[in-house]
Design brief:
Oligomer: single chain
Helix content: 25-40%
Largest sheet: 5 strands, mixed
Shape: globular
Strand content: 15-25%
Number of strands: 5
Length: about 150
């Protein structure tokens, strides 16, 4: 089937199988920052925004984005450069595997809860797993991002 959607602000048309997962389509389209980790929607590596809501793209069927707006980490550099600056300045990453999902979720958090406390940040970000940082630097980066520092 053919679908049309917006990817990081650009219109895309693609032929997809009914059972193709969005993460696979995005990677085929060059959005390789979106990674599959668990394949069951619990690790957060594959988080993207669909119509401004964070979604696990590894369990989201590609045909379902027909007519939608999809944003990946590649689009965040232009859309909101402050988030990359905060993660960089506060070392909110180590190996970088989880960073795209962390960035996408942090963007949604700022939109939905711009004055979130540290406890609220930790609760909101619970679906984004990291095996390197212990989360302290990630939470610090998100707090700075929310505070526009």
């Amino acid at each position: 089937m053919n679908i049309r959607f917006s990817l990081n602000g650009a219109e895309v048309e693609a032929g997809v199988a009914a059972d193709l997962m969005l993460v696979d389509l995005l990677r085929d389209l060059g959005a390789t920052g979106t990674k599959e980790g668990c394949g069951v929607g619990v690790c957060g590596l594959c988080t993207v925004l669909i119509d401004e809501r964070p979604v696990s793209s590894c369990i989201y069927l590609a045909p379902c984005v027909d007519g939608a707006q999809v944003w990946t980490v590649e689009g965040m550099a232009e859309r909101d450069p402050a988030i990359a600056e905060a993660f960089t300045r506060h070392q909110g990453m180590q190996c970088g595997i989880c960073t795209p999902g962390q960035v996408m979720s942090a963007y949604a958090l700022k939109r939905d809860h711009p004055a979130a406390s540290e406890e609220e940040i930790r609760a909101y970000m619970a679906g984004n797993l990291c095996r390197c940082t212990g989360y302290v630097s990630i939470v610090t980066a998100i707090m700075a991002y929310l505070a526009d520092e």
